[in-house]
């Protein structure tokens, strides 16, 4: 995306290639499921170590293919290490074997109890997990699901975004090498490049050999997946889905907030990855008492701290959007915001190639249509609110229907608890922005975001039956 130069030519899979990959994954998974849980976890940790050793190469490839600045590319790879560490800490919970019950319980029925009856719960692998990932984060969201799935005895077939295929192939090669040299499990994790072939993708979704589809992408993709599964009727009734379909995320900067801290978080949240994160900050609701100060500091940050350009150039912290279509979406989005009454504060221009200016708008008030839409560009709206209007702020955030992440900047925990309990989102951060994920905590949202949770306390149960 930085230069629009051709990087490579890739052979796009046809159905016979996909079919062979699924068959191989099934065959290897049947052996993998018999490996003791401790040994599976050891191999998963070895995979994470191998990825860390190759982080420079993988990070540079991510910067080259996707356009992230190197610090963000390496940060994405660090998330894989954190997921692996969480798996290692909780290895006793991974289950995945008939030989090791995860829970034993006594009967409450006195007759059964007198006979010495007891029950055991065992967690078995579900089989083959299908993964689709988006262009903007090709590594971390894959690992969020793939590593726990492997730890619990499953196989993974990965269909990456066609504009981040090199990253997917490189990561799969590292993983496969570890699996091959630790018991001959090559093919347990496989990458299939379906390109833009929608018919092939739908055929994969409907294939009965997949026990689960875990997908990161846009709402259109999620809707297409669910329709494909529904078209199969009861034949695919039992397939599991875990969808993460983006978010239109907001922060609230209350009257007692540390404004400098809030500005720092919002600046990165709105412009990191050129505004192309599912957790990017799209709207900041700022209390009237601190609004002018907040906007002044934020505008200074936009004008003085952001450097746009080739992400390989030292000092650059905003790279390109990922292709020409995204530039067009940015232009249409900015024009649409202005037409709806948004007041341009700074930015707003396409700069040539795939580079755009991070853009700041003032919204005229609540119920402003552009603040309810996910533009997926570095565009931020500021909304001023007064004392007594927190319920209106919460309603304004909830009306859009996305429900991924929010941040509340306040020194009053009662304010935070009140707001957090009313927001229909999966993640609410206190005195922190909307971006990022914690390997030990749930990640996911509500409503149009898709539902379901990755990582967190149920990271293993998601992939077992």
From TrEMBL:
Record keyword Oxidoreductase present: yes
EC id: 1.2.1.3
Record region (Disordered): 441-465
Biased composition (Gly residues): 442-454
Enzyme class, UniProt record, top EC level: oxidoreductase
Catalytic site positions: 244
InterPro entries: Ald_DH/histidinol_DH, Ald_DH_C, Ald_DH_CS_GLU, Ald_DH_N, Aldehyde_DH_dom, ALDH7A1-like
Keyword line: NAD, Oxidoreductase
Residue intervals of the Aldehyde dehydrogenase domain: 1-465
GO molecular function: aldehyde dehydrogenase (NAD+) activity
Pfam families found in the cross-reference section: Aldedh (PF00171)
Highest taxon in the source lineage: Eukaryota
Keyword Transit peptide carried by entry: no
Subunit details: Homotetramer.
Protein family membership: Belongs to the aldehyde dehydrogenase family.
Name of this chain's protein: aldehyde dehydrogenase (NAD(+))
Protein source organism: Micromonas commoda (strain RCC299 / NOUM17 / CCMP2709)
Gene: ALH
């Amino acid at each position: 995306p930085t230069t629009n130069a051709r990087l490579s030519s890739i052979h796009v899979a046809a159905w016979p290639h996909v079919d062979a990959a699924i068959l191989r994954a099934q065959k290897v998974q049947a052996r993998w499921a018999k490996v003791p849980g401790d040994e599976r976890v050891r191999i998963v940790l070895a995979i994470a170590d191998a990825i860390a050793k190759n982080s420079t190469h993988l990070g540079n490839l991510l910067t080259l293919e996707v356009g992230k600045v190197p610090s963000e590319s390496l940060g994405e790879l660090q998330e894989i290490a954190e997921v692996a560490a969480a798996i290692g800490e909780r290895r006793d919970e991974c289950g995945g074997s008939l030989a090791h019950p995860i829970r034993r319980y006594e009967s409450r029925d006195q007759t059964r109890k007198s006979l010495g009856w007891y029950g055991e719960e065992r967690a078995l692998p579900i089989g083959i997990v299908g993964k689709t990932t988006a262009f903007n984060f090709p590594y971390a969201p894959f690992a969020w699901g793939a590593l726990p799935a492997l730890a619990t005895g499953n196989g993974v077939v990965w269909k990456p975004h066609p504009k981040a295929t090199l990253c997917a192939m490189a990561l799969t090669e590292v993983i496969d090498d570890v699996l091959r040299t630790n018991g001959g499990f090559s093919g347990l994790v496989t990458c299939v490049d379906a390109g833009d072939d929608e018919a092939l993708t739908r055929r994969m979704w409907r294939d009965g050999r997949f026990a689960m589809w875990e997908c990161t992408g846009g709402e259109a993709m999620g809707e297409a997946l669910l329709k494909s599964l529904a078209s199969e009727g009861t034949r695919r009734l039992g397939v599991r889905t875990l969808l993460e379909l983006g978010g239109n995320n907001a922060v609230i900067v209350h009257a007692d907030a540390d404004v400098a801290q809030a500005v720092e978080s919002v600046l990165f949240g709105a412009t990191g990855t050129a505004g192309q994160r599912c957790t990017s900050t799209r709207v900041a609701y700022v209390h009237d008492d601190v609004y002018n100060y907040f906007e002044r500091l934020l505008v200074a940050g936009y004008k003085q701290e952001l450097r746009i350009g080739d992400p390989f150039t030292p000092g650059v912290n905003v790279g390109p959007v990922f292709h020409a279509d995204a530039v067009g979406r940015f232009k249409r989005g900015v024009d649409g915001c202005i037409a709806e009454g948004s007041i341009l504060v700074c930015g707003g221009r396409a700069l040539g190639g795939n580079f755009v200016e991070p853009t700041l708008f003032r919204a005229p008030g609540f119920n402003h249509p552009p603040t309810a839409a996910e533009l997926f560009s570095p565009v931020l709206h500021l909304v001023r609110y007064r004392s007594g209007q927190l319920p209106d702020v919460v309603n304004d955030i909830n009306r859009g229907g996305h429900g991924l992440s929010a941040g509340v900047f306040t020194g009053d925990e009662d304010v935070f608890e009140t707001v957090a309990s009313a927001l229909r989102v999966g993640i609410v951060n206190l005195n922190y922005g909307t971006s990022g994920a914690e390997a030990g905590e749930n990640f996911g949202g509500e409503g149009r975001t898709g539902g379901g949770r990755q990582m967190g306390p149920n990271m293993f149960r998601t992939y077992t039956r």
